[in-house]
Specification:
Number of helices: 13
Largest sheet: 8 strands, parallel, barrel
Number of strands: 10
Shape: globular
CATH topology: TIM Barrel
Strand content: 5-15%
CATH architecture: Alpha-Beta Barrel
CATH class: Alpha Beta
Distance between the termini: 32 Å
Number of domains: 1
Radius of gyration: 20 Å
Strand order of the largest sheet: 1-2-3-6-7-8-9-10
Helix content: 40-55%
């Protein structure tokens, strides 16, 4: 197993991260959070910490700020937790207010004001990593550089990264930004395999519809940028017995995951996550669940990645693509 790129930057992060978008109830700003929401968050955080997860992923827009605010209340009630955590948040997306549409904003003014809001809601003096959430077509790299310099110099943000960007966008920002970008968060899972497809299907007709930049995985590994996978379990699409699978490939992949889990005496979640972690980039899956028991079910993922054979990895991939049917009992 390769070392996580975050360790290169002096960040001793867990292989798994817990995403905090799902906490704090609805996306309606006017709907307040409740004691039940806090109990759910506390149970999830305790479950995560109990299995070694120390990395918590936020964004200023999650539940229109309510997710961060609820997390901040938890930290205020248990101050010692802050020193146990690596906290990451994102900025750059502005949600529609009904008058102006959703838009992306990497202006210096917006980045600085967003961080002030993040810190206030979380009740902390600093965050460990700030990501620029999605590309801004009107970006001025010099403005981003000024904002990052201000945040770094003030100690309000220790490290920086991006989310949902290709290498050209990162390189363009770096023409002005001296601080390294150490994270890129992208959608990756056994049901969203474009990051593998782009290399395998290069110069083939089947690759024409793939929405992933050629060479991005290699670029991030060369630059020691931590690849984080959002949606790694796709809301249990391949690991839950209660979800109806839309395609034959998904049904077969779910059955093969269940077979491997039973064979290896582990969970389905661990197998699905292990497939990602097995990649030489040492991908960091960001769990999206709010369910404490489902968080606990992910505990064995890193160990299973170490034990997963090449044949098992390829069988999972080919089955998910619908190009192979594994020979298993009752299949």
């Amino acid at each position: 197993m390769t070392t996580m790129p975050l360790h290169h930057w002096g960040i001793e992060a867990s292989q798994l991260a817990l995403g905090c978008m799902g906490f704090a109830g609805s996306w309606e700003q006017a709907e307040p959070t409740t004691d039940e929401h806090m109990k759910q968050l506390e149970a999830a955080v305790d479950a995560a910490l109990s299995i070694g997860i120390n990395f918590f992923d936020h964004a200023d827009i999650y539940k229109r700020g309510k997710s961060e605010a609820l997390f901040g209340k938890l930290l205020a009630s248990r101050p010692s937790l802050r020193d146990e955590m690596i906290i990451q948040s994102k900025c750059g997306i502005q949600l529609s207010d009904g008058i102006v549409p959703n838009r992306h904003n990497f202006s210096k003014e917006h980045i600085l004001s967003s961080v002030e809001g993040i810190l206030e809601r979380l009740g902390t003096d600093y965050i460990d990593i700030l990501l620029l959430h999605r590309p801004d077509p009107l970006v001025q790299p010099e403005e981003v550089a000024e904002a990052i310099h201000t945040l770094k110099a003030s100690g309000k943000v220790r490290h920086f990264g991006v989310s949902n960007m290709h290498s050209g966008q990162i390189k363009y920002l770096r023409t002005a930004v001296e601080e390294p970008f150490i994270v890129n968060q992208l959608q990756m899972s056994l049901t969203h395999t474009h990051f593998i497809d782009q290399g395998l299907l290069y110069n083939r007709n089947e690759g024409s519809a793939i929405s992933f930049e050629y060479g991005l995985m290699e670029y991030m590994q060369l630059e020691k940028i931590q690849i984080q996978a959002w949606g790694p379990l796709e809301q249990g699409r391949l690991t839950s017995t209660s979800i109806q699978h839309a395609t034959e490939a998904e049904q077969l992949t779910a059955q093969y995951i269940a077979f491997l889990a039973e064979q290896k005496q582990t969970t389905r979640e661990a197998i699905a996550l292990a497939w990602l972690i097995k990649h030489p980039a040492s991908i960091q899956p960001v769990l999206g669940t709010t369910n404490a028991s489902r968080i606990l079910a992910c505990q064995d993922a890193a160990r299973q990645a170490q034990q997963m054979t090449r044949d098992e990895w390829w069988t999972l991939y080919a089955t998910s693509k619908g190009t192979f049917k594994p020979q298993l009992p009752n299949l």
